[in-house]
Design a protein that fits this description.
It is a single chain. Helices cover 67% and strands 1% of the residues. With 411 residues, it is mainly α. It has a two-stranded parallel sheet. Helix 3 packs parallel to helix 14, helix 6 runs antiparallel to helix 7 and helix 12 packs parallel to helix 14. The two termini are 47 Å apart.
Length: 411
């Protein structure tokens, strides 16, 4: 195995720890069997995850809950970034101190490499002593990634509940409309409550040819009523966001209206499950809504919910954010000459810079448009915050230099 400097080996160990934490969080999120919504009652239970509750509160505060959930996601993301800003500032202060410490240490580190290049153990001991003397924090360099991963999966669990909650609400509202339409038509036709369950339904209609024809027409009318209700301005505005027809479905090739396998968790990725329904019932109630042309969409027969814009932007901004963050931290000098450690270190650093962007792309493609919008907004605010912090840091440095040497030219 190629020998790495102490600094590189320590950083690789920390990133492996971060990957292990991420894997554990993903397993906990994906394997949680308690996240489900029953649609057997008249109302759907609200989410229990504190992040989902927070999003629901914000959504209800915006236009009484009738506004687009996409704008709720943006507001939620900005508020969350503000809440976490003290931690973010602390991380950036550590990175800034590390950068300055590395500027001071760089000549000494290069000298140590030239002096002890053939004695790796002695070189590491001298490096450790120098890092300790200059208070260079190796953990501080990797804390942003670890904390970002933890917050990422906590928020992901909240969005997971919100998606399932909205699916349950949409279906429960459609089922209520369907049942009310059937009951009203049976009542107008003069049929009695033959089975005595206190509710007029298909079982109260005799099995005669004319009655069967009546039920077929009643079913068609009820499905039309469900379609009109589903596409009403209030419900449509909740799901629609700019180019995405249903923000609770991925900004990708998925259909705008989830099918039975999706809402019950048999298909898709980490989606809360609806319980208390059967496939026949779901497809009977949602028959006309499941028609791509009726629900809206892109591509042939309107089969696409989105245009892949958010996943692509999430990858690009995440990569840019990672580059800006790594650039703000002091990096030790790489070995000189043809030392194989130089190539190994370069490859490991490139791989680390791609970890978060690739993960963002996977989540953006396979999960809801709401979560992809969260990732995009979070990366955008992180970039803006980093640029502002860097600008303020430069102004502070110039001010200090001016005090030390009043004659220095300020650029």
């Amino acid at each position: 195995m190629v020998d790495l400097s102490f600094m590189r080996r320590r950083k690789v160990q920390i990133y492996l720890l971060a990957a292990l934490i991420a894997l554990c969080c993903l397993m906990l999120v994906a394997c949680n069997n308690d996240i489900s919504y029953s649609v057997t009652g008249e109302n759907v239970s609200e989410p229990t995850h504190f992040m989902a509750k927070f999003m629901l509160t914000l959504n209800n505060a915006i236009e009484g809950g009738s506004g687009s959930f996409g704008w709720t996601v943006i507001l939620f993301t900005v508020i969350l970034r503000l809440i976490l800003s003290p931690l973010d500032i602390w991380q950036k202060v550590i990175a800034r101190k590390n950068s300055k410490a590395m500027e001071r240490m760089r000549p000494q580190l290069e000298s140590l490499q030239a002096k002890y290049g053939d004695d790796k153990q002695r070189l590491q001991q001298e490096q450790m002593a120098l890092y300790k003397k200059e208070k260079y924090s190796t953990m501080g360099m990797c804390l942003p990634t670890i904390i970002t991963l933890v917050v990422f999966f906590i928020v992901f669990a909240g969005f997971r509940q919100m998606v399932g909650y909205q699916f349950a609400k949409d279906y429960r509202a459609s089922l209520n409309t369907f049942n009310q339409s059937i009951e009203l038509q049976i009542e107008k036709a003069g049929y009695a409550d033959a089975d005595g369950n206190g509710k007029l339904d298909a079982y109260d209609v005799p099995n005669e040819p004319e009655d069967i024809a009546f039920l077929a027409n009643a079913l068609d009318k009820a499905q039309t009523d469900v379609l009109n209700s589903y596409n009403s301005d209030e419900q449509k505005n909740m799901r629609k966001w700019l180019w995405i027809h249903n923000i609770f479905v991925g900004d990708n090739w998925s259909k705008a209206v989830p099918d039975f396998a999706t809402v019950t968790g048999q298909k898709g990725w980490a989606t809360s499950r609806l319980t208390g329904i059967t496939k026949d019932e779901y497809e009977r109630v949602m028959a006309k809504v499941l028609d791509n042309k009726a629900a809206g969409g892109y591509g042939k027969n309107g089969s696409w919910n989105g245009l892949l814009i958010l996943p692509v932007l999430s990858i690009a901004l995440s990569f840019l954010s990672t580059k800006l963050l790594s650039g703000s931290q002091g990096q030790p000098p790489t070995p000189s000459g043809d030392d194989p450690a130089k190539a190994a270190q370069g490859q490991s650093m490139k791989a680390m810079q791609w970890v978060m962007p690739v993960m963002m792309g996977v989540f953006g493609l396979l999960y809801s448009g709401a979560f992809a919008l969260y990732m995009f907004t979070s990366s955008l605010t992180a970039i803006v915050f980093q640029l502002v912090f860097t600008l303020v840091g430069k102004i502070v440095d110039r001010s200090k230099q001016k005090k030390i040497n009043p004659n220095i030219a300020v650029r």
